[in-house]
Amino acid sequence: MSSVAEKKQSRRRVVVVGGGFGGLKAVAALRKAEVDLTLVDRRNHHLFQPLLYQVATAALSPAQIAQPIRAILKRQRNVDVVLDEVTGIDTTARQVLTRSGPIAYDDLILATGASHAYFGHDHWQEAAPGLKSLDDATALRRRILNAFEQAELSEDAAERQALLTFCVVGGGPTGVEMAGAIAELAHRTLVHEFRRIDTRIARVILIEAGPRILAAMPASLSAKAQQGLERLGVTVRVNTAVTDCTQTSVQVGAERIDCRTIVWAAGVRASPVGSWLGANVALDRAGRVKVNPDLSVPGLPGVYVIGDAAAVNMAGGKPVPGVAPAAKQQGRYVAGLISRQVRGQSAPPPFAYVDQGNLATVGRGEAVVDLGWLKLSGLPAWLFWGLIHVFFLIDFRNRITVSLDWIWSFVTDGRSARLITEGERKQP
Amino acid sequence: MSSVAEKKQSRRRVVVVGGGFGGLKAVAALRKAEVDLTLVDRRNHHLFQPLLYQVATAALSPAQIAQPIRAILKRQRNVDVVLDEVTGIDTTARQVLTRSGPIAYDDLILATGASHAYFGHDHWQEAAPGLKSLDDATALRRRILNAFEQAELSEDAAERQALLTFCVVGGGPTGVEMAGAIAELAHRTLVHEFRRIDTRIARVILIEAGPRILAAMPASLSAKAQQGLERLGVTVRVNTAVTDCTQTSVQVGAERIDCRTIVWAAGVRASPVGSWLGANVALDRAGRVKVNPDLSVPGLPGVYVIGDAAAVNMAGGKPVPGVAPAAKQQGRYVAGLISRQVRGQSAPPPFAYVDQGNLATVGRGEAVVDLGWLKLSGLPAWLFWGLIHVFFLIDFRNRITVSLDWIWSFVTDGRSARLITEGERKQP
């Protein structure tokens, strides 16, 4: 026993914080390395975030886009999964501090992702929740479905119209997808289910501060997406800055839009990695850690930040975008770097991001895809989008059930997860 | 318009409270009757309660065993669905009182089901939650999965054993199914996923006050079920009364069992129908309304109680059991009675319960079935049980995805819905 323990002690200890796309990829890529891995996450599941909006709009169930981290890593024997909350990092003692005690590391990979940014208006959060976790998604689902139920019960026409007004703030992929999905819910799925209201009077307003939606895409695809949304009945308002959010309205300039549901899809802010690492570490405006070209933190050898929590530039000087493929590539890169060190090999060249393209779905049979060499819109783009997403869903069973649910709702206009749970129906 | 309104006014108004098996069957059976129906429920979904334990033990997702009531009744034009909480009944003015206002009725069908009974120890509820709603099930799922996670983090052997001790109180079908499913989770699904604990040391204890489990079944099948549970590693303790439940233990006589998870499956208590109807209405010990042979409430013409909220005897004098088929039969009976009245036909003969048999599942490939003329156990019983349950699941899509999930877990020992959500990980 003792020789095994000693042998274990002599192995390099790599701690990964965060079981998202980046962290999980780093762990998987260290599968064959002679290291002792620990993956710490405060949630027990890996989340396929790109489909979170489908949970929020009742098309998919939480379990269909999430997998227990332990189950994913069941067969990888060199990793220990810890379900715990990180409270800080002691970079001198080289320990990750958690609620149940410290975890020592030789190398540390921080992959903690991002949360919503309200640009100095954190009090908007309650009125305008964002979409990052399963809990966010089920809370939003409850809010959206309850708005229809309350409208059905309301005797007041103005109140009814406010209940049936949905504002989505932010015209990036999440905002576009949410707006499209809410419009489909109101104008297709729920039609004929209510007796007193006509759900088709529901208004869905997508508000974007910049000059066009999907700013990361070519202008032609932004225009296609906007047309697609408008066909679904979404009102797209560009060059429109939100100046206040309350439980009953969104303020845009001098105009007040009465609404009961606001979805915040406007900005991200890196998780508290910056504060964990101390005042000497430089952050960008979104709270991301400015890392070296090899993704290590300046001044803290053996500490790496990847994914949405890291700020690093591409060769041209543009920042690497906060998307799943970037996080995965960075996870793989750092894992490779550590593996080379363990084997005594030379350092790899700096991290280089490979842009695999951009895609966003608008609604049933409607998406936009930009692969650089290929631009698609409409049904071909939507089929491509579906294929890609199903392919990347982590396990085989989920691929089948998600495909089935999509085929089902394509055929019937139904949505499979329209549950209001937790009795939290007391809204203003 | 006015003639339509007058015509509508002259139609009989039937209000159904509760969208469970009984209420939904009553509504469906009044599909062609010349009545105006209103179905009131405080939840937006019909729940397939017999499979709730599978949500609590992470085998199925909530959406797989629940369907929006509006979606179920979409094509039935004579029914208005109201999502609201009933606060009382004014039997003089003939109105159901809800949070958003009164609903007038000519006939009233109360199908509000039952909740847990703690036999005068309501303070046990927090330590020993029961299983009636989706929220109960996801809360229990969180508690069970967290127990394993906390055991993995614990340094203390006694604490670890207590975390891995699961007590199920009550040896009816729900208790048997919960005990079997937790044992499978610990002894099969989670094995190899933890690095520090061996989940096979988990103890599952099924505690029954009576002389045998599944008392409604023939003794031979009770014995088979007990053997099946014991093969799965469940400790079955009959003739054992629980005298106290706390957050850290169950007291049985002089013995204290240290445990962190208690599941209450010992008793049901009718929902507050009794108190709504006033002091003149007779209730049995479980709070059920003692109804006439035609399921109407004595002294309240046009008011009917069905399902778990009603106390009515079979021809032999034994009470009609609180099971889904009984609720459905009663819903159909009262609907028929009202239809006959509307058409001016004579009253039907008193309600007669047709016993379709009893069944309970123990674990993978193991169940007991008693149809009177046929008794099954083991794999044949389990296949029969699966067939029946899939067949009765409300819609076609759910049948497919549930079947897939069952086949999947049969083949892999996996469970598809192992999510700990809502961050509520702060347990003692």
From TrEMBL, chains A, B:
UniProt-listed InterPro entries: FAD/NAD-bd_sf (IPR036188), FAD/NAD-binding_dom (IPR023753), NDH-2 (IPR045024), NDH2-like_C (IPR054585)
Keywords, alphabetical: FAD, Flavoprotein, NAD, Oxidoreductase, Transit peptide
A Pfam match: NDH2_C
Keyword Phosphoprotein attached: no
Entry keyword Oxidoreductase: yes
EC code(s) of this entry: 1.6.5.9
UniProt-recorded Gene Ontology molecular function terms: NADH dehydrogenase (quinone) (non-electrogenic) activity
External alternative NADH-ubiquinone oxidoreductase-like C-terminal domain location: 356-411
FAD/NAD(P)-binding domain boundaries: 13-331
PANTHER family linked to this entry: EXTERNAL NADH-UBIQUINONE OXIDOREDUCTASE 1, MITOCHONDRIAL-RELATED, NADH DEHYDROGENASE
Family: Belongs to the NADH dehydrogenase family.
Protein name: NADH:ubiquinone reductase (non-electrogenic)
Record organism: Hydrocarboniphaga effusa AP103
